[in-house]
Design brief:
- The chain is mainly α.
- It has a domain at about 20-45.
- It has helices at about 5-15, 25-35, 40-50.
- The chain is flat and about 45 Å long.
Length: about 60
């Protein structure tokens, strides 16, 4: 299974659950498919964007 097939399968499973991936996530998936970033880099970018602040730091 190549990258394209793997991502199509994974995205299909997400959609079967009635969920819709964000545009940002889909852009990262496309970059990973083309080999521009690694899966690890993709996870790092997502973690930076969606980091959860401790309760005392939330506004």
């Amino acid at each position: 299974m190549d990258r394209e097939q793997a991502w199509n399968y994974a995205l299909g499973l997400i959609r079967v659950d009635g969920l819709r991936p964000s545009e940002d996530f889909l852009l990262l998936v496309e970059r990973e498919k083309r080999g521009e970033i690694t899966t690890g880099e993709m996870l790092e970018l997502l973690n930076q964007k969606y980091v959860q602040l401790p309760p005392e730091r939330k506004r």
